[in-house]
Write a structure and sequence with these properties.
By secondary structure, the protein is an alpha/beta fold. Strand 10, helix 10 and strand 11 form a beta-alpha-beta unit. Helix 4 packs across helix 5, helix 5 runs parallel beside helix 6 and helix 6 packs across helix 8. It starts with 7 loop residues before the first strand and ends in a 21-residue tail after the last helix. It binds iron/sulfur cluster. The site of iron/sulfur cluster has 11 residues, from helix 2 and helix 3.
């Protein structure tokens, strides 16, 4: 493999010399990770030469999640083909696809004893299928090595690559997750290479191909959006068959990234969560430290329970749910 540094571009990360960095409020601060479980997860990820979005995105929840072995695996390398203004993952020319990665990933999930795993990736606009085939290979390896483990994929938008969505739906993950990230007005500055309508339309396409897959999406707040715009995105999500919405506070990775325009208070998150529930999502998670993979295992069980409750509500059809785990408290 070539040295990583030859392939990385940082030209888009120019700090604004006049920018004022807001001080983090107390509800954002987290303790440095020190637990035995954290160390074990770190050692295993390193030993199997895997990448995690927990590290690449400098996630504030890493101490809590890794102490329980909950790492979100990032496949297809650690160099992204896009330059999103919010994201800490390196940009440049990505590495070749590693055909051994799906099995190493499955071995890690088995060693960590996970019951639910989230797999994500960098954007791979350089690949003919956007990386969809590799996601499918990961799901296949997990099904063979860790039967009973439920699988959530957090994918790129695949840039209209022919057959990509079909490959994902056919591989039948339990959850299809694609983050809209922000309101459409901010796409040009925050999520430059993406298209809001295209991202939204992925969900009904997946649902039409496999109606049993749960659909999930996430938003960051604090980037300069208005509450009215967030509510409109919620309406768009419900109109595009999204079951589960996560909302969390945007944090600026470096001074060259998009600034935090404001810190949204826990009370405002509670109001957003209530507004989303009123719109009929099966599940909503909204808090300053919510990330799309935060507590994904517990939330998946809640999602199953919520679908069962809704399916068996008076006047609903009796669709059978493919449940792998134990039902938990329905968050609806
Ligand atoms: S919230 Fe997700 S990305 Fe952050 S540490 Fe937990 S599993 Fe990793």
């Amino acid at each position: 493999m070539h040295p990583r540094s030859e392939y990385i571009s940082t030209a888009h990360l120019v700090p604004d010399p006049n920018a004022v960095r807001l001080r983090k409020p107390p509800w954002i601060r987290v303790k440095a990770p020190t637990s035995e479980g954290y160390r074990r997860t770190k050692d295993l990820v390193q030993a199997l030469d895997l990448r995690t979005v927990c590290e690449e995105a400098a996630c504030p929840n890493i101490g809590e999640c890794w102490s329980q072995g909950h790492a979100t695996m990032m496949v297809l390398g650690d160099i992204c083909t896009r330059k999103c203004a919010f994201c800490n993952v390196a940009t440049g020319r990505p590495q070749a696809v590693d055909p051994g990665e799906p099995q190493r990933l499955a071995d890690a999930v088995a060693a960590l004893g996970l019951t639910h795993v989230v797999i994500t990736s960098v954007d791979r606009d350089d690949l003919a299928d956007g990386g969809a085939r590799h996601f499918a290979a990961c799901i296949k390896a997990l099904r063979a090595t860790c039967p009973g483990v439920t699988v959530e994929v957090l994918t790129p938008d695949f840039q209209r690559k022919a057959g990509a969505v079909e490959m994902i739906a056919e591989a039948a993950p339990d959850v299809f997750n694609h983050n809209l990230e922000t309101v459409p007005r901010l796409y040009r500055t925050v999520r430059r290479a993406a298209d809001y309508a295209h991202s939204l339309n992925l969900f009904p396409r997946v649902r039409a191909l496999n109606s049993r897959i749960f659909t999930k999406s996430g938003l960051m707040v604090g980037l300069g959006e208005t509450n009215r715009e967030v509510l409109t995105v919620m309406d768009d999500m419900r109109a595009h068959d999204i079951d589960f919405l996560t909302i969390g506070q945007y944090l600026q990775p470096t001074l060259g990234h998009h600034p935090v325009e404001r810190f949204v208070s826990p009370d405002e998150f509670a109001e957003l969560e209530a507004a989303a529930r009123d719109r009929g999502f099966l599940l909503v998670s909204a808090s300053p430290l919510t990330r799309s993979s935060y507590h994904a295992d517990k939330d998946f069980r809640r999602l199953q329970a919520a679908r069962r409750a809704r399916t068996h509500a008076p006047g609903q059809s009796g669709e059978v749910d493919r449940s792998h785990g134990q039902p938990s408290r329905a968050n609806v």
